């Protein structure tokens, strides 16, 4: 059976063709059709039709006799059954012969009198309908072939009479059809008779009053019985002669009279038994002695199960019980097969029977002095959960040899409410400990836990740090001190000054949370050591971890400078070059060994053995290399890097190399550049060199064909401010702009008029022109744009050029310093995502030319009249709804470009549907000498 989906986008095209091979159609469109004949002509061989939505058919939005006339061969018809999605159905005048082939039918709505017609159909075995009259009468005769009946009742249904006693039904659902359904709010069930063939029955509705008795008739066994009721009063003989079933669910969602004492008296087996009440007293014995129940779920908000300890359930394997008292657990002694327990208990629990098969125990809300003796002595419990339990200590848990997982959640997540954690140490095979607490300090007991344990303390980072320290060479006392310092630290910048052992241990474990702090500590220590014990000739160097210097380079430098390299750390070593992921840290002696980093070593090399580019006289060659680094060609970059490996890197080359490092997609090339920059600059620069933040994929189109714009680059750079520092971020943005023509917007969006920012923005002054447009870089982005879709840029430039709004609102301010000390005659603010004149623009009162083209302006401010020398004004490709009235007050204008001045529609063109905004006659008369360009 080939299927097809008909939706809004393909509605007309599918109806224009004939699809002989389609037998199943999924219809989800609210587009109108001329008639049902139009659909049957396109799909003449349909056997199954599923409606999700429907538009008007011949002016009416309904399924009616004409529909069934056009589709007499349907075997399945489905419609949505939720109230908000339902389709109108009218069965008046339907010829029964047109329904004769239906085997499965789901109708959004119908009347109860229609059931006589539907239930008599010769092949129909499964029927789902929704009824909406206030009083519903459901009757199915013994002649009906129906096996499955689902009747959804609308909220306005108040009374139900249901006579199915003579039918052949095996499954019946009355009331709500799914979780999201809106069923009756107050339903009176006046008659309910079910057939002897029944296997599954569900009544899911808020019932009131007393339910009829013996609703199951002579049925003695069922597969499933579900009664989700409201405040209904239950008859003692409600279940009739029922003895066995696989699953019984009874829910009373509001206060009710007491549960009848003999309600379940005839039951001998309910494999899964669920009773959920809000306030229903249960004074008698709930279930008969010895009844077969394997899965027992009991919930009663009032906790009114008076004879709980009289329960005898010998086959019970799983129990979820909510609402018992602390002294109502003795009945468990009669359930030796019980493996899983989840109890919400009120009051004190002093004892609990031994359960030889118990593997999982959850206690909630109980009060204990310590865990019951039967629990502490259990060798079978594998999982223990204590949720909102009050107990000062756990007890001796050394005999709980199978216990692997412990979960403790104290009241209100208070750490002070935890039981004594020292008891956890005695658990022989503990693998996982979860503590739902608001961490205040690291408990001393936790430091003694097995390092392989999965510690979940809601602070994942602290748990990871505990594991690192636990596995390290540090003493428990020292580790505990560090962990208590780390407990309140949520951000790396909050870390106070820490001892060398802490930094070395975390670095050795390759833990990067405090990478910036490790770098800063190492840089300060290395500089201090260099002053106290300078590295140079006669020094003996041991390398620990990954350094930016290659082994071959260090050997060559050793010969040039005169120091020695040692392969082992002994008393002869004078200096340790500390790289990332250092080894042998437990052997470090900070009194004997001076720790240095790549930066200090690089300084020593440059001072004692500078390469030829780093020496005086290499300025001309340096200029040539800088020119190669500034080239857009990566091949030139690679040649330059080869030269620098021989000649050395000067200070002027650091930033150009840094730009290439961050923008190349070549991993091996990046490694070469990292090696060249090893040890150069301050710790922030070294952190930036060695991090994994890359910008090679920030431009062009994303995976969906949308412009990335500059937002990806700017957003990524913003996130590095704290690590790199503002100066390096701004310098990188400037270099990125020089290379690609975009990225300077990062600097332009800054609000602080720093000196560095001003010097960068001054590069936008070209003679007497301030070219703000070039700085914004939007023209460069459009090189990736589909040329045939340029009109969409005009329609919504912010949407296309500011993808995911990563640039924010793009509110820019032109610094007043750019106007001082120079004469600006031309101001280009085109393609700057402007919706209004930017702040600071009105200070350029001497301009003769102003471009505001390709923006989102829909009006102009009165401040425009300050431009008394303005001669040329470009307002093309904007969003004006009317001609700006302020222009009538500017008779000195000599040229006005007003083409495409208003916004087009999405995916439209500038043809007949485009609303052309005309320059009014009043302006033409006020400015007779002005050249006007308009549509």
Automatic annotation (TrEMBL):
The record's section on Gene3D superfamilies has: Ribonuclease Inhibitor
- Supply the alphabetized keyword list: Leucine-rich repeat, Repeat
- Higher taxonomy: Bacteria, Pseudomonadati, Pseudomonadota, Gammaproteobacteria, Alteromonadales
Annotated Pfam families: LRR_8
Is this entry keyworded Endoplasmic reticulum? Answer: no
Stored InterPro entries: Leu-rich_rpt, Leu-rich_rpt_typical-subtyp, LRR_dom_sf, LRR_domain-containing
Question: Which species expresses this protein natively?
Answer: Ferrimonas aestuarii
What GO CC terms are in its UniProt record? Answer: cytoplasm
Tell me what this protein is called. BRCT domain-containing protein
Report if keyword Repeat is assigned.
yes
